[in-house]
Amino acid sequence: MVLRNSRLREKTSQLFDSFNASISFDQELAEDDLLGSIAHCQMLIKSKLVSPSEGQKIIKGLKHLQKEFQQGKLKFSESLEDVHMNIEDLLHKKIGAVAGKLHTGRSRNDQVALDIRLYLRRQLVTTANNLLQLIETLATIATQAADQMIPGYTHLQRAQPVLLSHYLLAYAWKFNRDLERLLSSWERLNRCPLGAGALAGSGLAIDREYTARLLNFSSPTANSMDSVSDRDHLLEYLSAAAISFTHLSGLSEELILWASQEFSFVELPDEFCQTSSMMPQKKNPDLLELVRGKSGRINGNLIRLLTILKGLSQTYFKDLQEDKEPLFDSVKTWNQSLVLINQLLRKTKFNSTKISKEVYADYSNATDLADYLTTKGLSFRDAHQIVGQLVPLAIKQKKYLLDLPLAEYRKFSQKFTADLYAYIDPKNIIKRRKVMGSTGPLAVKEQQRQLSTLIKNQRKQLEKYSTLLGPKL
After folding, report:
1. Which of 12, 149, 306, 322 could anchor a disulfide with 359, C-beta 3.0 to 4.6 Å?
2. Which pLDDT score is estimated for 373?
3. 47 included as an active-site residue
């Protein structure tokens, strides 16, 4: 190969060639490499580093390769190592020796740095849209749930009654923070590294600002050494993915529990479940289990890249070839998971009758019973102690607090009167939750209003970012 013959005399071993090649995965960047090359060539024409006729011939060849790539006709070779050298070779075969002028004023170091940013801009918008759709689905189901009550849990033990809408909105807010993390990374990502060269910039009169404008970047990157070594934008995406998968895994676990016979709170759609090879009665929540399991994979991708980067000084090292596979894998896995979970939620049926009965079949109104005593003048600690003695009594008598006779209550305190039963009815418990962010109907409606406003603003922001993708050059 030409690059090798220019400096090294001996051929590399076939085993090393295979070990060294990245084309099997970095061909994912072909679309971005072609786009970046067209912009670079336009800059070379403007800067008079190639003639207009030469530049137009190169651009025409690149656009032809673009069309062939979109049609799935480009054939890449492992012997050419990576996507950049493959495209350069394909261009050379198409237009001849003038293709060699395309690499004027750039290195593969700043070339790949550009490709990754172009790729990640597209994927950030895709992932953000998928997150937004999931948030909207949760908000819609929450609205449909209206005044449906459900047991709330801590330590996987019945804790206090809440509205199902409040439960669902808790996840909507988690995923909205994931969305905010992605959107906030845009400005740091949207800077153009092309022109940084191998590490020191270029001695030729290139125009970095022009290239950045052509590709709809906000500006060129500020430091050439940082430009080719920086992978913070990958880390931000992988970090956001890992955090989001914590939320996806938690939601999956919730639905797995709720779909079990012990809970029977939901019926999952058949199309996202599978049966057992041995037990014909089984309906296994395989999609949810896979998403829960893939959280380990996504966490691993983040740790993998952090580990690669932590041992590197300035500027570019071949280690950075290993940044792409964890990125591509996380992009694919995160987007697929968001789409599938969204589809599953839209078709999940909530067993309202069963859920409502369960709200009355526990001792989760005990806290409000203690609150009741505080309204009668007792300190909360004294009230807590009294209720702590009443609950075991009720359990022993196989009764819930609403079923326990008033005479039993009055054995513990004369503060108890008949109005306690209305006070500890779950419906009234929930109605009293009026504090901002709580589970009361009015507080939940305010949450929904806030979330709706936020979604509208984020939608506008994403529409703006979408217009900056794939400039027509």
Report:
1. 149
2. 97
3. no
